[in-house]
User: What shape does this take?
Amino acid sequence: MKLKEKWPVIKIILIYLLTAGIWVLVTDQVLLIFAKDIKEFYIMGVLKALLFIFVTAWLLYILIARLVNKVKQVEGSLTEAEIKYRSLVEEALVGVYLYQDGQFSYINPRYAEIFGYTQEEILNMDVMELVFPEDKPLVTENIRRRISGEVKTLRYFYRGVRKDGRIINLEVHGTATLYNGKPAIIGTLLDITDRIKTEELLRKSDKLAVVGELAAGVAHEIRNPLTSLRGFVQLLQKQDHEQQRYFEIMLSELDRINFIVSEFLLLAKPQVVNFEQKDLSIILQNVIGLLESEAILNHVQITLAYPSDIPVIECEENQIKQVCINILKNAIEATPYGGIVEIRVQRLGLDKVVIQFIDQGSGIPAERMEKLGEPFYTTKDKGTGLGLMVSYKIIESHHGELKIKSENNEGTIVDVILPVKR
Ligand code: ADP
Ligand code: MG
Assistant: This one.
């Protein structure tokens, strides 16, 4: 305590010493004058001392009572503040933690909820168990920097691991502090997994839209020279009668390029949803035509079987094509060592038709089935994980159903069920 803080106390003691000294000296002098003999002097001396003791005791009592009152008041306002802070923290929508000596000394309910554990479980755990292995060095270093006093406050991102094994994206904001006299960190934690997913989705769909626009432009640029090429080949064909076979091949290849580019253009064009009555067999033949070369590269043969009375469906042609391409492409990609991919169309009762895509490829393990159709769920290096999601959406908007059955290592059957136009 500094002298300035001690001064009020010293003042009281000085006043006490002074008044006590004056009291003793003055009253003794008075006694000397008025006391008639030594006995009277003695009795009055005792009375004066008793009076002094009584008065000081009374003063002491007032002082102590005041002090106690003050302490009580301060204590009261402290608990009130503590109750306020505690409920603020306990009810908070962000995780709140107090970290010390490699463990949490306190976490709020939301913190436990973010990781899917109970509060007790986390308080008894090693902090690093909640951190994704690759991010452990980052978190360790950031804790060290604050505990050592190198920095006071840090805000950073890392990946956490939930009790159910799911990986979550986290944002932490923590400040170095003292707790029970030792260095500690107090901070907040936010689960930003959804935010990151949405940002990624926006980025990707932006990219897809740009790619679509570019593709439409490029397709136009290709189609015009193709028309003149085709014209010249036909001209040559009429003049030169020896190389007929080559001209035939050139013409059919040019037609194929033209077909692919036109299809591409149609798919890439900004889509105005326009439901029309369409013949399924033509849609499927077009789709097969588009993916034929990819199938050949994979040594996959595509077969198509449909009944003679194949019904007409009401659909947005490009969207249904898109679905068939997505599913057929998956089937081809799942058959890297070659094989057959079957497409079968069947009537399903009076008012439905089912298109089955059957492959004998890698199949899908049971535990991965429920992930299908989730955006960005892919097991391929160059996959986007958007194909099935888009397909589900399109079929849903056609009031149809998309069903996937699969046996691991046996193959997969995808059923696209669509209502029939009656
Ligand atoms: P992508 O093809 O870009 O990976 P999709 O949404 O089309 O995205 O497919 C998601 C995932 O579903 C694929 O990565 C694959 O693991 C699985 N899958 C889809 N179709 C099949 C199939 N016919 N055979 C095996 N796995 C499949
Ligand atoms: Mg795909």
Summary: The two ends are 95 Å apart (CA to CA). The domain at 276-419 is CATH 3.30.565.10 (Heat Shock Protein 90). DSSP finds eleven helices and twelve strands in the chain. Residues 349 and 420 are 10 Å apart (CA to CA).
